[in-house]
Amino acid sequence: MKAVRLESIGSLVMRSIEKPVARSGELLVRVAAAGICGSDRHMFKGEYPTAIPVTMGHEFCGIVEEVGENVTRFTGGELVTVDPNISCGICPGCAQGRPNLCESLTAIGVTRDGGFAEYAAVPHQQAFILPADLDPVHGAFCEPLACCIHAIDKAQIRPGDGVAILGGGVIGLLMVQLARLAGASRVILITRQQSRRQVALRLGATHAFDPSSSDPVASVREVTKGGADVVIECAGVAETLQSGLRMARRGGTFVLFGVTPAGVEVPVLPFDLLVNEVDIRPAYLNPFTHSRAAAMVASKTLELDALVTKTIGLEQIADVVGSAPLSGEIKVIVQP
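and the corresponding structure tokens:
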């Protein structure tokens, strides 16, 4: 079968490799759609811990083609979404109900072969059934949506809150929709790209600001009359982390979601955080949220088609992952 493999930092190559089989407790999934994530670009550049070599692709759905021994929940033919994060269940993090902090966490598409391929073998407990008539492109959104739901859980948005979201990629635009569903009365997106600001306004943002044309901190403080109740940082860059902390009102919440390259240090003002009691809450991965994301996608609660920039084949992945996102790019979906 064809698979796109990270063979070294900066080297992503499509290879012909042996088709996997469903071992005991596993499913063989024929990949129908897989999303390209910002984290894939971090892995490609060596900015995120990754096994090498590995078939990348951690956001995917597909059809169960083969069922391994000791699997009773599946018979074959089901459309499934795959939670890529596999926890051990016994370490202190798992024992405390925080599997995203598992000391032995493995991840499909990161530390074991994933969905940038024609087929992927996955543990059956990582698979969640989707409606058979669902567009597989929508199914590929379950993993990023699950991570966003975890961030929204951490944010604890209350009806009437003002929410500022920094970063207008697919994550920021999913957050816009989730914040409105959570009851936020003002949802403000901060991003440089005009096309993304326009999409955000169509999806429910009440305001969208360009940080290169005006002071985003002042703009948010004016709209929210003193600062956002919740700020969600989705860009993973030093500038947005610093400005986001200043956007929060006194006693507000700052959710750190964007992946900043490992080793990057960001100066902050501890005194301001102290006297304003800004609550910093990192949100990492998707503990116990993948099934909820699958249910949301199945219910068609969210607008997803507006987030798809284009679909490509396996042979185009290396060019997309190895390059910076194009202007206006939101989500690129791979269909093997």
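(Above: one complete record from the training split.) The domain at 2-141+304-334 is CATH 3.90.180.10 (Quinone Oxidoreductase; Chain A, domain 1).
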